[in-house]
Amino acid sequence: MKYYLLSFLLLLTGLKPAEAQLRSPEEFLGYPLGSKFTPHYKVLEYFKYLGSAHKNIKIQKYGKTYEGRELLVAIVSAKENMDNLEGVRKQNLSLSNAEGLSSANKLAIKAKQPAILWLSYNVHGNEASSTETALKMLFTLAEAKTVNIQNWLKNTVVIIDPCLNPDGRERYLNFFGSTIGIQPNPDPLSREHIEPWPGGRSNHYYFDLNRDWAWQSQIETQQRLDLYQDWMPEVHVDFHEQSYNEPYYFAPAAEPIHQDITPWQRNFQITVGKNNAKYFDKNGWQYFTKEQFDLLYPSYGDTYPLYNGAIGMTYEQGGIGAGLAVTTIDGDTLTLKDRIAHHFTTGMATLETVSTYADQLVEEFGKYFEKGVTAPPGVYKSYVIKAQNKYRQQKMANLLKKNRIQFAYGLDKEYTGYSYENKKIQRFKGERNDLVINLNQPRAILANVLMEPQTAVSDSNTYDITAWALPYAYGLPAFATQEAVKGLFPAPEEKIELFPVVDRPYAWIFPWRSMNDAQVLISLQNENIKVRIAEEPFTIAERKFEIGSLLVYRTENEKLVPALAAKMAAIEKKWKQAFYPAASGFVDRGKDFGSSAYRVLTKPKVAIVSGPESSSQSVGQLWHFMEQELNYPVSMIALRNIDNLNLNKINVLILPDGAYPVEMMDKLEDWIKIGGRLILMEDAIQSVTDSKLFEVRKKEVFKEEEVLVNPALYANRNTMDLSDAIPGAIFKVHLDHSHPLAIGLGAYYYALKTDDHIYSPLNKGWNVGLFKPDSYVAGVAGKTVMKTLNSGMTLGVQSLGKGAIIYIGTDVLFRSFWENGKQLFLNALFLVD
């Protein structure tokens, strides 16, 4: 009887039973928020429950992680906005496309269009209070008990992503759950506060997803950015945690702030910050602003939205490693409940500010993209990327498309521009397949930030790298022009090469210049087809073949491989690669095909050392590249097992950036001498510089004595070491182009350096890549660093018996967007003998 009476009352009031009394997170989960961590599946269950129980909440799934965990957002607003949600989205998107900005439309937008506020939680898995906060945030907005919240939601559509990195968060939660006792131990030395390698910060492949926004190398980022680009919020907040000994941080940000960030964006950060401060002051909570967290590197959760017209902000709560409770350096006890309360407060205060200024936010958002079309920023108005390497140019084009940056192809005359290669203004000839980015477009600022040759840095005490210009990252010749140049064609011209018809070729020949060529080689070797490399150039029928050209000899293969010609044709078709059929082993110029200049390539059987001695970031980059990009089998092994390597199973061993005991490295001598290849990445080289087995030595740097004229001031303590700073700068590496390690890289290899490590040239070995006095290209590098890096070896190969040691002294796979480095790594993997 009571049930029927309740149903009748609900019918009279127009409420659904689920809306009459929403279950709080505590009621749904069965424990108070902050008393334990909530696993991802329960977070999803609660979000879906609220989505089904409340008509003003929409749950939108947008993908899955590498480990198969679901990714979703909740969209919540007032009824009138939710009833027209698709219309709101399209109208907002039209602003980001600089559409419909007539005076009449501006008035309509100002009167009707709510601002979009996107809240992102837990991009770093072990910053685990964020997701707990998201549960409270969505419930509070769903309940909308107060008039204030109801009014805020009339002006604002809120998008809540409860966890950007479920794989990393679950790694952290599994660790924490396995180490905590009956009660949390607040002692910082207790094991529940000390994560083992690799920690929960990163995703499945140990990537930092908060540094992947622009590059979109990871599946989580790719899927999230597809949704983000469909909404283009006016405000984006990224919720983080920092050391548990730090007070809370919120905007405004620290210098350096990129010059293209507008005065409106800067000022609104201050407006938000003051409102956050009001509530923190009321509670007596400590906080800081304008320190440490800058706005320069374009691939963060605050900078990427800023370069896309939004107000992007990072909020940092103390808490990494804090567990459920920890004693801080000040003697206070910081609990998970405290951390949730702080994040919840800034989230609600930000919503209040966004709602208050919704009309102005929408208007300024539209102006941002309109200005991109009519008055793009910066010195240069166009960028021209030459088609020296078709594959890498296409990879850059794909990245531009992901970021909705417009471009075209083809120029038909001469122009004047800044040469990225020469760092000079010069004339250059436009060609049909030049990729042209004209900055008169809505995404002008993002395009300019990604392409500008030298980023202006107002304060060298930065949080991340200070140089990333795409032509250097992709190893492509390019020019920046002050003229608004437009491409003539929507796509590049596909040139079909006409090869002679040869019924039974002596050899099939194909180039080595890209990942696609590597896939061809892998397919051939998987069919047990022998492939040879040309270590010198040669000419056949006036056709020149460069060093590094690959050859398949018919006779030596058809004895072992049935239906050889058919398999060759199938591989050509699969990879869209035309093989040149050489009718004879006699060449017009160069060495004939019977020469030792054409050696057989060994099929790599690869292992990567993975463990606490290694940088998890370096391990992850290698692992991701091998599995996700190259689709090549790889064994991940522990350092303790490397002294028992079997050459028949592993003939290439990669030591990622890290610190390794030299006695373990010396155990590899016999394995290398019988044919093993050892690739040492970055600081792995530092581990062997005192070993007799390894020829590499640290470069001796003699420092001049400095006379102390002005004593150091305590007030300058945070900037005193900037002469030794190199947060991330680009240097050009002079190459020995005759060596297989340098094949396909272009005139120079552009290295992104984040340290000052450099080595003396090898006395016995090949110095493939050298720094010289003209090597500096772009980015912040202190005076002392510049002196150190004015000469020395960074790429080298040492022969040892039948094997080789390859020294790669720079991060060639940096965050998976340093495309030219991938070519160098492929060379080390497949070509070096």
Description:
By secondary structure, the protein is an alpha/beta fold. It has 26 helices and 35 strands. The chain is globular. The N terminus is likely disordered.
Put the structure in a nutshell.
The protein is 33% helix and 20% strand. It is of the alpha/beta class.
Blueprint of the fold:
Blueprint lengths: L1 H12 L3 H4 L4 H5 L10 H14 L3 E8 L5 E7 L2 H5 L1 H12 L6 H10 L2 E7 L7 H15 L3 H9 E6 L4 H14 L39 H13 L3 E9 L4 E2 L4 E4 L5 H21 L3 E2 L5 E2 L7 H4 L4 E10 L4 E3 L5 E3 H21 L1 H17 L7 E4 L4 H13 L5 E2 L4 E6 L5 E5 L5 E4 L5 H8 L18 H5 L3 E4 L25 E4 L4 H12 L5 E3 L3 E3 L2 E3 L4 E4 H5 L5 H12 L4 E3 L15 E3 L5 E4 L6 H14 L4 E4 L14 E4 L6 H5 L2 H5 L3 E5 L47 E7 L12 E6 L12 E6 L4 E3 L4 H6 L3 E9 L2 E6 L10 H13 L2
Parallel strand pairs: 3-4, 3-5, 5-10, 6-8, 7-9, 26-27, 26-28, 28-29, 29-35
Antiparallel strand pairs: 1-2, 2-4, 11-12, 13-17, 13-18, 14-17, 15-16, 15-18, 19-23, 19-24, 20-23, 20-25, 21-22, 30-31, 30-32, 30-33, 32-34, 34-35
